[in-house]
Every structure is written in C-alpha cells, then in structure tokens.
Amino acid sequence: MSAAVLAGASSLMTEQPSNELRSNELPSRRVSQQRLVGRLMEMARIGATVSGGVDRAALSAEDAAAQALMAQWGASLGLRATRDAAGNFFLRWEAGAGAPLVSGSHLDSQPTGGRYDGVFGVIAALEAVQAMQETGLAPRRPVEIVAWMNEEGSRFAPGMMGAAVYGGARALADILPVRDQAGISVEAALASTAAALPGIATRPLGGTPYAYVEAHIEQGPELERAHCPIGIVSGIQGKHTFRVTVRGEAAHAGTSTRAERRDALLAATAMVQALARVLHDEADVTKFTVGRFDVTPSAPSVVASQVIFSVDLRHPDSQELRRLSALVAPACEAAAGPCEVEVSRLSAADSLAFPAAMRARLRAAADRLGLAHRDLLSAAGHDARYLHPICPSAMLFVPSRDGVTHNEAEFTEPADLYAGACVLADVLAELAMSTGQP
C-alpha cells in the first residue's frame, strides 16, 4: 500500500479517544518504505549466506557488527546506545520522564535463517522513532528500541535468554555458565561482544517499561492466505523445553556383542519414538519436536557412549501442556534399556493472552490507515512473552510468503513491511504521548 493511500486513509478519522493523536500528528505519514527496506537489506549483509539468508548467531562477531550498525543509525537520530549485563542492546530517545516505552525484537538468527525474522521488529521500531521525530512529536516519556539477546536459542539454549533475564524470569547467574557446541560459555561470549563494542556504555539490568510493542513477521501462512496485511496477536501458545542426556558406554563396533552393549544411540532413538507415541495428537494441536541430536563420540566404528537431544513441546492450552510435559521423563526412562537417562527441563512457559486494551490500540491504528487486520494466536515464541508479566505488552504480525521462516527463502513483501511499520509508528506515538494507562 502506498504512502499516499495510507496518508489519505489516516485523514478519514472521526471521533477519537482523548489519548489518540490528531491526523496531522500521525507519524505513519512520515514512515519511508524505501528507508525501512534499505536498512533491512543493509543489515542482511551482516552474516549473509550464499543462498540469500542470514547466519548471525547470538553474541557472535556478526551479532556485534549488527549492534554496531544499529548504534550508528541511532546516533544519526540522537539516540544513545547501551547494553546491559545480559547482552540486551538498547537505543534510547531521551524524551520526557518516567518509565520508557519499549519496542523491538532481536538481531540474532538461525544458522540458515532469513532476512526478516526478528530484525524487522528492531528496524521497524527505529523507523517509527525517526517518523515521530520528523513529525515533530515531543514524547512525554523516553522511547527505547531494543534488540534482545539470544532469542533464537540456536547457539545457547534455551532461547529468549536476554528478555527472560530482563523480565526477571531467569537469573543472570543461571545463563552465564551455559555453553554452545564449541564449549564457549555465555559469560565468555558476552565479554567478547562487549570488547568488540567499546563505545557502547553499560546500563543497569532490568526495568519496568511503561509498555512494550513488538512487530514481527508471522512465521505462518494465515495472513497471506487471507490477503490480510496486519495480524493482531491475541497471545502466545505455551512452550516447554527439555534436554535429554542418555549415557551408555563406548565399545568396538566389530567385537562387542549385542548383550554387552550399552548403546546410547539406540536408546535415544527408542526414546524419541516413545515420545512421539505418548505425545501424539490426532487433531495436530500438540507440537512435539526433536531439533538437536548430539552423538558422542560420533565415530563410524564406535558404539555411542552418549547422546544429548532436545525436546520442544507446545500447546495453546496451558493445562494440557503441563499434562503432556509430565509424560516426557517417564517415557524416556521406560525406553532407556541398559542406559542411563537424565531429563532436564530448560524452560516452562505457559500460554498467555495480551491485554485487550493494547490489542485494541493496534486494531484502531490499522482501521485509521484503512488496513485489513485479523486476530491470531502466535504459535511461535517471542520475547514479548517475558515483557508481558512486567508491563502492558502487544504484538503485531505482517505476512510471511508461503509461511516460510527459519529458512533462507523467508520473504515478506515490502508493502506489508511498510504497512506494519506504519501501524507500529502510530501506536508507539499514541503511547509515547499518552498521560494515562497504556
């Protein structure tokens, strides 16, 4: 949708609540599709893959370079860059007083990720702030753009580490010892990233924002199928994650007998099949995934001595999710055979619903701009999960082509990115200027 159409639609407002802006104050008029997409493409060069995607692991050199680029863009707008002890990155517009209004998402990606997952929310928030400045708005409170540390969880498990620590759901001390597959700890990676960004000051950990709004690609096909540019996220389905460690004994592949073997790989595969049976859901509402499988010593002629695998379990009904989670450890133990098994729960996030008032703000902004919208539940996890308990929070989605995500082929039409940024800009402006509750 063109800027002219959006600007025209925004001028058709009728009666407004007292905390809404006048049509000539709406920053959506100043949102630039060219600038938004240009920044996304420039960011995509950091960690670019040969197939057109992005590999930008959390707390990597590429992640630091992405933060440095955001700091550069922020400085041109008078925004101050800081990082906290958990590696969360902030750009602050020092305006007004009181608790800050926060918006953003994440800059890290999957190893073969796309150009839009996470980063759209960060750059759309930057575009919203620039549009507010160009409109001449003077916010009544500080506005912060955030890039949360390790949302994806592809390098360090579990994901959403930075937001979880910021929101108080996890302690910093709990994440520092976590190691990646190369044996590098979060603590060491944090130190390396800080050394690569010497000009960025450190800020205190945590806080209580006035409100939080996150824009994101849908990571599903619903909006595209409905020819709908805006999704109003009603909530996020629950997600429980586990690490399963199976311990056996290494043995010679040619000389050890079946009776002698304690084959960790055979036991682990039996456990995965047992989990698939006990967690089976004919209606296909339950989502059960084993996405990582690490075998030791991983040699062709050696019986595996250890296997570590992940379990990702999701369901929109929290009570049912808890019931299913309770089946994970018994199923693994029953299939262990001669091996030993340890099941560790990494995270247990139940389903949530975002506040009705925050969702209503997004709907109203989309209506003013003449943009079709629909409510939908997020099947994927997002950092907003950990902001929800500490401040009024909301999310908006824009379509993903064919529902493809966590994939180098990930794509969202520029017009849809622009529409989402326009809605975000107007809602952030409304919240930044509001004198009452979000």
From TrEMBL:
Entry superkingdom: Bacteria
Residues the record lists as binding Zn(2+) 2: 117, 152, 406
Cofactor requirements of the protein: Zn(2+)
Cofactor note: Binds 2 Zn(2+) ions per subunit.
Residue ranges with Polar residues bias: 11-21
Stored CDD domains: M20_bAS
SUPFAM superfamilies per the UniProt record, alphabetical: Bacterial exopeptidase dimerisation domain, Zn-dependent exopeptidases
GO molecular function: hydrolase activity, acting on carbon-nitrogen (but not peptide) bonds, in linear amidines; metal ion binding
Residues bound to Zn(2+) 1: 106, 117, 216
Keywords noted in UniProt: Hydrolase, Metal-binding, Zinc
InterPro entries registered for this protein in UniProt: Amidase_Cbmase, Bact_exopeptidase_dim_dom, Peptidase_M20, Peptidase_M20_dimer
Peptidase M20 dimerisation domain residues: 236-335
Region feature (Disordered): 1-30
PANTHER family registered for this protein in UniProt: ALLANTOATE AMIDOHYDROLASE, ALLANTOATE DEIMINASE-RELATED
Similarity remark: Belongs to the peptidase M20 family.
Entry protein name: Zn-dependent hydrolase
